[in-house]
Amino acid sequence: MRKLWIVSIEILVFLAIVAMGIGFRSQNVNAPLPVPEEAPALLGAATIGEGLDTTDWPEGVVERPSPFLLSSALFARFLHEGTETPPTARCYRTFGLTLSVLFLALIPALGLRRRGGVFETADGPLWAMAFAAVSPALVWSGTLFTPFAGQAFAFLALLIAARAYAQWPTYVAAILFGTIVAIGIAVDPNVVWVLLALAPAMAIGVGWTRLCLYWRTTHIVAMVAALALVWGALAWTGWCGGALELPTFNTVAGDWLRESTWRLVWLCAGGLAVLAWLGLTIWGGWRNDRRWARLMAAAFPFCLIGSLFFDKGGALAVPLACLTPLMGGVALSTIPKPWGRGILGGLVLVFLTVWLFWTTGEAWERIPSRGTQKAAIECLAKAHTAPATHSPRIRILADAPNLWNPEDCAALLWPLRSVATSVTCDYSYTEADISIVPEKTPWEPRQHYLGTVELRKDRIFHVFADLPSHAKGGAQ
Fold first, then answer.
1. Which of 239, 246, 277, 405 has an alpha carbon within 20 to 30 A of 394's alpha carbon?
2. How many angstroms separate the Cα of 396 from the Cα of each of 357, 410, 441, 460?
3. 342-357 per-position pLDDT tens digit
4. Helices 147-167 & 171-187, crossing angle to 10 degrees?
5. Which one, of 60, 91, 107, 77, lies nearest residue 405 by Cα?
6. Distance CA 70, CA 46 (A)
7. CA-to-CA distance for 119 and 121, rounded, in angstroms?
């Protein structure tokens, strides 16, 4: 039995890492105005939880329903119970933050190799947690409300289910595996490409001989049946969003190099995944007792190469971001000396922390301050009382014909969602009840000027609206 003081230290380190992860991910949770990247998902969840009618809204402004958005809507309603006002953005963001923190907390469930798990030493899961706590892509996905946090949690759950089946090959584990896959496909149909990338990696990691030896046809049937039933139920209820994206390839050399560099810098945490992959490939080799190391060493290049065929990696960006800290923890756990793991792991952790602030610093600098966001909310709140005399109710003017950003439109609509019966985002200069115009755009309004809304430091809009007759006298 392990010494009690060692277990106590491990528990304290576990709690410290979770607290560190919460600290890095919670800096935007109370922001009143959505970041444009998260606004479509927020409106998608609000459509479910608040019963918004978005039939007369432009396509792309609201994200399609999915199990992630449904769960977040229920979570937000639970947090906001007992009040008459709609849930704030914080209520929705808390769900994504919770999934991101659960991702950290469940990494030890991958287990030790002597028990059929992934890591070589008892501190391996803690190092993987620490790397994940400061990995830029995972931190950013936990900070903003996007399906990425849910997809990362589902990917880890998939690995845990696979590990459980490898250790205890039962019907329960097989059904659990199929259920997780079905939910992942319902959230994003492009998860199919992830499965196609992981299938050969699974075969390489497990080995053909072992696959044939332990093949259970009835388990496979149970898994496929669970997958079909769960996915069919979600499709029947309308919670399967999006369409399958066909792979393409950017033939422009400069763009291809830029996109490849972005994957290494952002998703692979400054190249940590490549170094860990080299270590696992050399150490894992082809020995039969190192199947998990071989599986990760095979899965990483399949996912990396496959991500080049999709914009920003597509669904394959999720396994790249998740495998990076996991491979780092597994590779570090192969070092036999504790002091060696401590020195190297500490250096990697310092590098990742610096890399996190360096890569996300510019993005945070572009986001306006809380005071500016509150002023924007107050400005848009003044437009709630505009009389409904025009069609559409809200018009967001584009910068040029056929050039409008659905994420910006979604962020502007968030404070107006309760009165946005019809919305148009185009280059037409016709009147609407509420007109939102980009800065430096020629516009001769015949409405009252309410103020400005700053989405980013370089993205400012002017708000115009008709005022009720009793308010016009005071406004003039």
1. 239
2. 34, 10, 12, 12
3. 999 999 999 999 999 8
4. 160
5. 60
6. 9
7. 6
Q: Looking at residue 152, what is its pLDDT?
A: 92
| 331: amino acid identity, one letter | A
Question: Would you list the DSSP string of 318-387?
Answer: HHHHHHHHHHHHHHHHT-S-HHHHHHHHHHHHHHHHHHHHHHHHHHHHHSPPHHHHHHHHHHHHGGGG--
List CB contacts of 246: < 8 A, sequence separation 6 or more: none
138 φ, ψ (degrees, to nearest 5): -70, -35
Dist CA 11 CA 13 (whole Å): 5
Q: Over the stretch 257-268, which tens digit does the pLDDT of each residue have?
A: 777 788 888 888
Q: What type of residue sits at position 89? A: A
pLDDT, tens digit (0-9, with 9 covering 90-100), for 44-101? 999 998 888 888 898 889 988 888 888 899 888 888 765 667 888 899 999 999 999 9
- 3-class DSSP state for residue 450? strand
Q: Which pLDDT tens digit goes with each residue over 110-141?
A: 988 887 788 988 889 999 999 999 999 999 98
Max Cα–Cα distance, the chain, nearest Å: 85
Please tell me the pTM assigned to this model: 0.90
Q: What is the pLDDT of residue 473?
A: 43
Token reading at 293: 């190391």
CA 326 to chain CA mean position, Å: 17
Q: Which strands make up the sheet holding 459-465, listed edge to edge?
A: 423-426, 394-397, 434-438, 459-465, 448-456
pLDDT at 261: 81
* Residue 321: both structure tokens together: 């971001």
- Distance between terminal CA atoms of the chain? 80
Return d(Cα 29, Cα 90) in angstroms, integer: 5
d(CA 88, CA 309): 37
Helices 67-79 and 147-167, packing angle to 10 deg: 110
Identify whether the C-beta of residue 428 lies closer than 8 Å to the C-beta of residue 50: no
Tokens of 211: 């696959």
If one counts every other C-beta atom within 10 angstroms of the C-beta of residue 75, the result is 20
- Nearest 5°: the CA angle 358, 404, 259 is 40
Strand pairing report for 394-397 and 434-438: parallel
CA distance linking residue 312 with residue 262, whole number of Å:
8
**DSSP H stretches of helix in 367-463:** 370-381, 406-413
